[in-house]
Amino acid sequence: MKGALKHILFVFPFLFICLACKKEMPVRSGFELSATTENNTVILNWTPVFLSGFKSVNIYRSVSPIPDPLFNKPIDPTLLIGTIADRTVATFRDSSVVLGSGGTVYYKVVLNLENRVISSNEEQASLNGFSISYNSPGSSNGSHVTTFPEKNLFYIFNNNAGTLSVIDYSQKKILKTASFNQWGILRPVINNGNAELFMMNNNYTISCYDGLTLMYKYSISILNGTVRDWQINDNYLYVLYAFNSYTVKVRTYDLSNQTLVGEKTVHNNYNYLTCHLFACTQSNKLFFKYYTEFYNGGVGFSVYRNVCVKYNLVNHLPADSVIVTHAVMKQDSLNSGSYYNIQSSADGNYMTCNDDGEVLSFADNSIHNVSSVNISNPRVSYSHDGNFLLVKQNSSGFNSNLMEVYALPGFNLVASLKSPNSTLGQNTSSMLKDDFLDNDSLVSYNLKHTFSNNQTKSVFTVFFNRID
Prior knowledge:
By secondary structure, the protein is mainly beta. The chain has one helix at 2-24; strands spanning 33-38, 41-46, 54-62, 80-84, 91-94, 104-113, 117-119, 123-126, 129-137, 143-148, 153-158, 163-168, 173-179, 185-191, 194-200, 205-210, 216-221, 226-233, 236-242, 247-254, 259-268, 276-280, 285-296, 301-314, 317-323, 332-333, 343-344, 350-352, 358-361, 366-369, 378-382, 388-393, 402-407, 412-418, 431-438, 441-452, 455-466.
């Protein structure tokens, strides 16, 4: 009898332990998860839930494997990317993917019942890209992203921390982070064969830094005028400034010794605020653009006319000015904003004329329209090598992430792609995003901020898509 009682006393604790284990350990019971990828989006599907006591389904994502949850040790709540309270929903699209350095991301779905949890299997997805996460002080974040595809670089200025970081997206890592007292307009260029970063602050001082190490080199102070624009080409700095309310000049500085070479008046008009300048880094050309406003009695109100002047550089000074006279370029417009769409390719062979998708080829003075049914209000940009043209929906258009790539000089449509980012809201308080061509590759990035406990967590994600 004593032996039997001893046996029973041994069995009861064992049963108690087993019951406790059953409550604490997750049970799968055929709750299976699958993951597929589509256009840099991960699509999750799992077994529909028909169990009693259903409360919700939690979706978790991590850049490393996710352990099974316990009642007393749940999955890290910061990995939670979604909660679904409808048992009939068994799918989830993750379009804000955060990747590991190898482009890998892990998922797990957990079913929450009244008295237990059921964990799915872990699914792994691989995409062509990477993510970098970092923290900064403060409960808000104002960041600026500058691209430098010539050297596979991003520059990210963090207002909260007062830092500038340079990211090599070919190596998928931060090369350098440095403290900066104030942020200014950034212009990265290849100068004398070296990557250099130029910054203009509010005092109209333009400073030069090493593009990789962010080490300071020198500064040039622009006096006696209001700087409207500036460009660097072939170790010379070209500054467009308003000498007074009417006169606009271009000053040339020799960057080898930071001295003024000379200046030239390029505009005498009251509307100096509309003036801009851009240099073609692969040719000896300088473009000056502005618009004029005049009253048209025929229509009874003011209209705008875009003007673009092409200069050849002689001894590094603007000379031999030629007004771009194509009818499309100089057509009247009721919208002054169309002026801002005028842009040259880096080699100076093509000019975007307006916001209607019309591009001028200087080779034969012909117009090519890259507007389409899918992209009716296009935003045009050029690959640095001059071989491709990227067309995407302007931020003022409808919410479409479709993009089209044309091969130059024939303007042949070679690819229709979808961006992982919406084209609307390129700059918001919590998200920065854009797409550009790195020669024959599409590079898409987004910088996303989340705020918690007076701390900003920022995640910078980059996707790559080769143009075939």
